[in-house]
Amino acid sequence: MKVVILNWSEAENNPFEFSSKNYTELLEQGGREVVMLELTDKSWREQLLALKAEGVEFVLSFQGLGTNHYANGINFWDVIKLPIVCLHGDHPAHWPKNQNLDSRYCLHLYANAEWAQYANQHFHKKFAASVGARSLFPPEPPEDAPQGDFFVMAKNIKAPEIFEHHWKTDHPAHVSKAMLGAAAVLRDALRTSAQYVRVHELIDDYVESENLEFMKAKINPVFSHSAHSQLDFYVRNFNAVRALEELHDVPLNVYGKGWDKLNTPRSSKHTFHPGKSTEDSRALYNSRFGLVDISPAQGLHDRAKRAMSNRSSFACNAAMDFQYEPHRFPSIFFKLQSGSLRQIAEVIMADPASHRAACAEFAALYQTLHKPQDFLTRVENFARALVSE
Predict the structure, then answer these.
(1) Taking the CA atoms of the chain, what radius of gyration do you get in angstroms?
(2) Assigned domain for 278 exists
(3) CA-CA to 386 of 20 to 30 Å: which in 138, 158, 328, 351?
(4) Which domain holds residue 299?
């Protein structure tokens, strides 16, 4: 029985192809035969039908890509009757049309609990969305010994001021006021809260307190998801700028586009480079001080997981649960609102070897909690359950 992976090669920096290759390696290590179908090939559905005749156990999709295909009002997956497990590595508000498939043959797994919570709140289906914390990918070919006394930040950015200008000039007055008001509430919480800020719950609380009927999902779902998406990106970029500013006198190489649009002064300690495709960015994880990652959710982002897979150094703002024993790794986890990133940078620069060892220890702990075979078995069990319903 084959496992089919649906790949989309036209995304910026090509992250899906990188993930497809890594999942292929994991599945093949577990004894599965894997076939990758390219969604930009218009014949992919015909190819899948042909594969079904040979035996297909289940299909994997990233971000729900490939689920939005209908003929005469019937979804393709209800016709082909193959289980498809959608692995979502981003917030559902960014891809709302890819969260909608309500089929007995489809299950949506989200990398973070808060994303699954949002999906279950707004996209009601036969099977509730679940959380699927991914295991680490297999290590990539090793680089030389760590080199370069600098930190690395890999992220495309859109300056927060650009969002604000758009909201001020391109919307009716009531929408402009609402979006700018929500952004102000988020900024205040991000600067002052001692706890992890649940961005989308805070947005909903603001909409409710201001009685903004036009922003409520039950009344205007399209605009509601759009507002959540815009504000989510606003927060991500706001936090990235804060990290850059906190490291103003620390050697830092930044990879990605949009940084030239910031209004903040450039630091002589910072060097800016174009972004790289995910496939070609392995070397970014090899500096002596390591990666600085700003997670878009409570858990670890794939950038941090990739650093862990490759035995690289990293520091991130993920708010890890107690089972990960974050108190044991004070040089890894920071809070932007407390100024601890700058303090952690000092610790890392003073002894990068000890920090690298701490990262390796945390990676080993994470791997014991999220074994690759356990993750694949869970996906297989979900797929079997879909067929047996």
Answers:
(1) 22
(2) yes
(3) 138
(4) 151-369
CA dist 297 and 351 (Å) reads 29
Say if pTM beats, i.e. exceeds, 0.90: yes
Amino acid at 273: H
Convert the pLDDT of each residue in 232-269 to its tens digit: 999 999 999 999 999 999 999 999 999 999 988 899 99
Are 24 and 36 spatial neighbours (Cβ–Cβ below 8 Å)?
yes
User: Higher pLDDT residue, 322 or 220?
Assistant: 220
Count of domains for the chain: 2
β-sheet bridge partners, residue 36: 5
pLDDT computed for residue 37 by the predictor: 97
Residues 93 and 199 in one domain: no
* In a shared domain, residues 218 and 342: yes
Q: Please measure the distance between the N-terminal and C-terminal CA atoms of the chain and give it in whole angstroms.
A: 20
> Could you report the per-residue pLDDT of 161-204, keeping only the tens digit for each?
999 999 999 999 999 999 999 999 999 999 999 889 999 999 99
- Which of 10-19, 61-70, 107-116, 313-322 is the least confident region? 10-19
Residue count of the chain, please give it.
389
Please give the C-alpha separations between residue 383 and each of 1, 55, 56, 209, 380, in angstroms, as whole numbers: 13, 14, 11, 41, 5
Where helices occur in 249-351 by DSSP H, the ranges are: 302-309, 340-350
380 and 359 share one domain: no
**Alpha helices, DSSP H only, in 210-323?**
221-246, 302-309
Verify that 363 and 377 share a domain, yes or no. Answer: no
> Do residues 359 and 382 share a domain?
no
Helix (H, G, I), strand (E, B) or coil at 137: coil
Residue 250 contacts residue 269 (beta carbons within 8 Å): yes
Q: Which two tokens stand for residue 359?
A: 């990262």
Q: Is 18 contained in some domain?
A: yes
Banded pLDDT at 304 (limits 50, 70, 90)? very high
State yes or no: pLDDT of 389 exceeds 60. Answer: no
Q: Let me know whether 18 and 120 are in one domain.
A: yes
Domain annotation covers residue 352 = yes
Q: Quick check: is 144 in a domain?
A: no
